[in-house]
Amino acid sequence: MLDADFFRRWMAATSASVDREAERLTALDSPIGDADHGSNLQRGFRAVTATLEKEAPDTPGAVLTLAGRQLISTVGGASGPLYGTLLRRTGKALGDAGEVSEAQFAEALRAGVDAVMTLGGAAPGDKTMIDALVPAVDALDEGGFAAARTAAEEGALATTPLQARKGRASYLGERSIGHQDPGATSSALLVAALAEAAGE
Amino acid sequence: MKMLINVPESVVADALRGMAAAHPELTVDVENRVIVRRDAPVAGKVALISGGGSGHEPLHGGFVGPGMLSAACPGEVFTSPVPDQMARAAAAVDSGAGVLFIVKNYTGDVLNFDMAAELAEDEGIRVAKVLVNDDVAVTDSLYTAGRRGVGGTLFVEKIAGAAADEGQPLERVEAIGRQVNENSRSFGVALSACTTPAKGSPTFDLPSGELELGIGIHGEPGRQRRAMMTSGEIAEFAVHAILEDMPPRNPVLVLVNGMGATPLLELYGFNAEVQRVLTERGVTVARTLVGNYVTSLDMAGASVTLCQIDEELLRLWDAPVKTPGLRWGM
């Protein structure tokens, strides 16, 4: 079973990972975006860690709902609402149980990913974070956290040959081909942090 | 690149403090980044709220006041504001008649305004939205995030603002805003790139002797690059691009808009050429506005926006307005 502490560890591991990878995320965002993905997420997840320490929510749902709200209030741009919605909707789907099973979490995360697709209007193959998140949720159902991590990383790598159809990269048209999507890359970091929090 | 700033991090806050000092008729919340007309909420009237990344001044904060916006929410330079800003603005300006969000079509702006609408609706505020997407330079809307919102935003904010000021209901103000957007088209050119305070160097490299055609307002490159053209040639290219997309039927409002670093002397000369091309194409001009209204920091260049109007829209355009950036009739 997964408790509130597990989800706090997930957020802390994500923040540490985004800190380590911020420069790489910004570098990926330079040729096809506006070169601020790493710094925006860094600001956001640092604020998440701080608010979780301060407010100390005691259920899995409350941890993720608070984390999502904090991202939405801090980041701006497109990534703030998208990542914020992912966590907030996942948190809401978990309800107010003190502990949740892996299967319950997988189902809630799918609801979160669905909400991101509804909000951003992106489908798989549009060269967005969805290309890492959808394979991760599918793998989580079947193989657990480690399988989800592998699937997300493969999904992010597979965005390189795609042409962007959503977000600011889409204005580049064919010139977006050949670059790995920064949003899919940061999504893979988020999923990898799940495995880290689970000690896998 | 030399800039008249203290440090890049405080550029937006510094500008808001200066705006507060210059415009006592506005309430400027520097910490929460919301600019509100001081007499809000105005009883019985729909309130208009807009916002977006900073760097496009006077858009949007300079258009807050009677006859136009009730509030504006500036984000970081070229980064959309967060939902809390618009939710706070909605709570400050709603009289019970509802609020209209005017949103330029960029992914970040759309998402943050949508989330703000949810927050405001949770507080019992009625929210409607008009999306502005008037840039004809984005041709492949099916496979992009869609056309960008640029100069047409000024027409939407002014005309919908006048309708709200008359006391028209939310549904009607929204419909008028949509009508203005659907009848507006823009095309912009850059003679130089712009420099964001954080980056400190130009966003793209544009050699002297060349220009970018079909630019947006965030320092991004345009549709194509060409050898430098005369003002008359640029006017022909821009007006033709617009009329190709929106064949002329009715009289038009014309906005000849500077991108930030082009002198009014050049803008008026460019306007003469725009008017010549419109006359040649048989387009009747009802009103013309020339100046720096929807800018891109220190970019040199200009955009042309045409809005096809009927008698009702012209009446609303002519209605009194009193804002830092646009003022007539009162």
From TrEMBL, chain A:
DhaL domain ranges (all copies): 5-196
Signal peptide boundaries: none
Keywords, comma-separated and alphabetical: Kinase, Transferase
Superkingdom field: Bacteria
Record-level GO cellular component terms: cytosol
GO biological-process terms attached to the record: glycerol catabolic process
GO molecular function, one term: glycerone kinase activity
InterPro entries (alphabetical): DhaK_L_YcgS, DhaL_dom, DhaL_dom_sf, Dihydroxyacetone_Kinase
SUPFAM superfamilies reported in the protein's UniProt record: DhaL-like (SSF101473)
PROSITE patterns: DHAL
PANTHER family assigned: TRIOKINASE/FMN CYCLASE, TRIOKINASE_FMN CYCLASE
Record NCBIfam families: dha_L_ycgS (TIGR02365)
Protein name stated in the entry: Dihydroxyacetone kinase subunit L
Organism: Streptomyces guryensis
Lineage: Bacteria, Bacillati, Actinomycetota, Actinomycetes, Kitasatosporales
Gene name of this polypeptide: dhaL
Automatic annotation (TrEMBL), chain B:
Alphabetical keyword list: Glycerol metabolism, Kinase, Transferase
Principal EC category: transferase
Catalytic activity, reaction form: dihydroxyacetone + phosphoenolpyruvate = dihydroxyacetone phosphate + pyruvate
One GO BP annotation of this record: glycerol catabolic process
SUPFAM superfamilies: DAK1/DegV-like
UniProt GO molecular function: glycerone kinase activity; phosphoenolpyruvate-glycerone phosphotransferase activity
Superkingdom assignment: Bacteria
Pathway terms, separated by semicolons: Polyol metabolism; glycerol degradation
GO cellular component, one term: cytosol
Domain DhaK: 7-328
Entry's EC annotation: 2.7.1.121
InterPro entries, per the entry: DhaK_1, DhaK_dom, Dihydroxyacetone_Kinase
UniProt key word Kinase: yes
Subunit details: Homodimer. The dihydroxyacetone kinase complex is composed of a homodimer of DhaM, a homodimer of DhaK and the subunit DhaL.
Name recorded for this polypeptide: phosphoenolpyruvate--glycerone phosphotransferase
Biological source species: Streptomyces guryensis
